[in-house]
Design goal:
Distance between the termini: 8 Å
Helix content: 25-40%
CATH architecture of one domain: 2-Layer Sandwich
Largest sheet: 7 strands, antiparallel
Number of strands: 16
Mean pLDDT: 94
Low-confidence stretches: none
Length: 292
Amino acid sequence: MQVITKTDLPLKLFSRGKVRDTYELDDNLLMVASDRLSAFDVVFSQGIPYKGTVLTELSLFWFEHLRGVVKNHLLPLNLPAELRGRPDVLERRSMRVVKAKPLPIECVVRGYVAGSGWKDYQKTGMICGHKLPAGLKQAAQLPQPIFTPSTKATSGHDENIDRVQGEKLVGKDIYDEVEEKTISIYEHAAKHAKSKGIILADTKFEFGIYNDEVILIDEVLTPDSSRYWPVASYKEGISPPSFDKQFVRDYLEKTGWDKKPPAPQLPADIIAKTSEKYIEGYEKVSGRKFVR
């Protein structure tokens, strides 16, 4: 299959992110998920087979599953005639969405002690300012999910922010609303994932304003934005195996790369195994067979 690392559609480009290319389509937006890989905020020249398709199809699954929990930006695809001859780029990797005004914060929710949260906890006994019980081990479940928002950096790393900083960026009412929505979505998604033998350790959402309402936008609960662990191999005290790009991150940590551009070339077996991780995660979470 063709690996898509860049798109070039006959539409006005709205934005090009680390993974998605977004175009203007009438008064709406067309989001196209490429197969680009971003790790440690660096975009790699090599793509991961099927990655963009997994991201899109899993987002579509979750938007449908969460329909009664939160409003989202999704519209029927309805592509214009001039785009229908581009199945290589558009089929199974594109979403038509309303043009909402994105909020300037990433809405992160953590249910377990993992990643940067584990490093934070080891140093301070807290995660992003949330005081936690003493003696928690790596990968331990938190007493309840915590909301740990961050800035949305256009380049470099996002930075964690506290409630005071978040309220300055979006206002108290909206901050309270997205905190409530973030926790609620996480709890619904984690319950579904657990029923499929998967732990949703943490994830991040983006919200926007559309018609004076806060709605869920961008991707949702994909392996790029979430940490998924298999229940069968989970135990406290270790970093559990995961269905996301943690696999390639772990490989990169052993290479001595300084995590600055340019990104190193990935071996073919690492690319293939990363692709399989994404596909396996999709199949387990959705309960559907991925069509290659």
